[in-house]
Amino acid sequence: MKNLTHIWFIALKDLKLFVTDKTAMFFFVAFPFLFILLFNTMMSGIGAEDERITLHVLTRDDSGTYSQMLLEAYETTEESKLDPDDHSPIIIWLKDIDYATAKQQVEDKTLSGFVAFPKGFSADIETFKNEILAGEKPLHFINLDSQLEVIVDPDNTDQQIALNGVANIIATQMNAMQATMKSTALLADDPTDAINTFFQQLNTGQWAKDLPSVNYQTTIVGDVEAGNPANYVIPGYLVMFTFFAALQGGAQIVQQRQNNTLERMLTSSVSKEAILGGTFLGIFLRGLLQITIFWTLGSLVFNIDLGIAPAAVIIISVLMVLMSSACALMLATLIKTERAADGIATLTALLLAPLGGCWWPLFITPKWMQFIAKITPHAWANNGFNKLMVFGADFSSVVPEMIALLCFAIGFGTIAVLRFRTSSIQ
Amino acid sequence: MIKALYVALLETKIFLTDKAGLAFSLLLPIAIFALMYGAFGGQTIFHGTAYMVNQDVDAQGQANYYSDLIVEQLDGLDSLDVSILSEADAQRKLDRSDILMAFYIPEGFSDDIDSGLSSQLTIKQRGNGGDEGQIVASIVRGMVENINQQLQVHAKVAGAVGGNYNQDTVNEYLANRTVSVNTSVGESSAPDPVKEFLPGIVTMFILFGISMNARALYEERKRGTLERLVTTRLGVGQMFTGKFLSYVARGFIQTLILLSLAYAVFGGDLFTTASFFKALFICLVFSGAAGAFGLIIGSVSRSEGQAIWMAVFFTMSMVMLGGTFFPIPEDTVFFTISKFSINTYINDALRAITADNASLTSLWPELLIMAGVIVVGLAASRYMFRVISK
Predict the structure, then answer these.
(1) Each residue of A281-307: pLDDT tens digit?
(2) How far is CA A367 from the centre of its chain?
């Protein structure tokens, strides 16, 4: 009981010292919010882009029968007349410019990219048709050296994927036609009529008529709304500054050990355990104060959305504070001098913050970085917050993150308890 | 002046023998640069998530053949993750705008395909599904089209050849895909990540290192070290000058090591010999500005906490407003505010040197502003500089 009282008084004294330093308090509160304001402004509006993707196609085919027929089938002639359920990309046929000009426009960044049908495309198909009808064994639907081509601006990755998607669908259809005709030529007793019918269907756009297919039905459930960047900016900075402030608290323990404050406390009736507990509680309470300010201002000023499981957000925040406090104590037990403590506290806090996704959301970084980030408690906390506040996860989805933070806290805490000493003399 | 130089030399010696300080000054910028380069330096590639509701399952809840095939093939793509949701979860996430698009594979999807019947995928989306949603949709459509075409080829050949139909022959021809797509991407005009991030990170840590010295200055004043020193023949002005010179020396040494390392690693892509020395000179001027800044914080701090938080606050504010990590959008109020950050000028100058080998004369506005900060900063800090803790 006496120990508990001591723990409480030490914690309260630390908190009082901190709160009464008004300038430090001001920066403690104002500093994170300057960042939040800056990033919130810079990232606002991101995610609201919802224009239909526009893709361009052209043909280098001289005679042009088949390529033109296919392009007519793909081309979006009038957007307003489109099936309202069809939300596929708008496809524009570049009829007024040739291949070289279009390519130059891509290099000049006035055109994002295009799919080009190759030279001799129709002639190749015609040759294939003649060979197959003559009973010869045709080699290829179109010449292997003249394939479909995608020319794209390397800095426009969305276009790159979308153009390749369209080109691959065309290639898939070409391959399917080739396989149909070759199989029929091989298997049918007299394939002439069937092959002629196939080409007639191809010419009239009836190739897939009456065949089973996988169709799409699109249902619009609302409009696209820009996400609130505060939903991932605030948690990131909460994690960073909670940890940073806690580690600064750890550096103060080293200072108190060096100037013998901790030793002097032992000479009174305060036990070593009470000093450890009180110091830990002081840092923990300061962290709680910090997250309370963060979430209160976040809700009132930035209108953040805590998701469908606000309790999980709170639990992760508290676990983050618990872990940070334990880490601060561990740091204090591992470092001998005050000067080293300051440097290492700042170094650790500033290194783990970007690695753990505090400066930018981890979900925009490469997979390997997301994997490496998991060595930091920051990444677990940020992942939990992102799941809850950005992707709408429920409580059960973030239990692994909670367990991970708890494990970090226990691990740091155990090292701190085992190594804690009050004297700077070993 | 000699005495001031002695003070500066002593401080520099302490800096060079302080392992933690050196680690902070040298290892941290390298680590942060590596992280920035890792996160944003590679070629930008699309990565999206396909949210799927699979209702085509057997009695045990296992996905049936075709729905499983679609999910498996999509999941195998580097550019895509597949997230399987329950119908209720998908609806809730769509309602809350947590996701913009979900693909529903209906019950009996595989059975319909097996029976040669048409089947239907449902796409529920908000608006057009956003940029990412539309691209994901195009990937899903491409994947489904593959299955579609295989089914249609079999149906078409079976209809044409009647009793001679042989599934293996058709599959063999289907596997022989000779029509393909060649993709040509030109040269990227995206800024070189090394030239983009390196100047900001180096200058960030020069400023950080120097401003964090404010805490040491406060400590020396609190412990009476400064007061004891003025009882010797060392004047306050000499001490002040010595401190300032030591900050400049510290910043310059830090720059010299970091830029030399960068030169050694990235070589001619980053610097020519001339541009390397120009960069060093610019950083020397910046170290002066940062030193004056550190002296102001050290002079006005009334407690250790104040010194640390002020140093961190001002450094990080300057760094962020200086466009260290992300360019500040021109049409925002922050762009105007960024003109008050010295990092804006040093970063612009260093980027101009590394990217275009800009001459020092062309960088006179930046040099002039940094020189102005040194003069004003030194005057202000000298006015506030005290040796006695009140």
Answers:
(1) 989 998 998 889 888 888 888 888 888
(2) 9
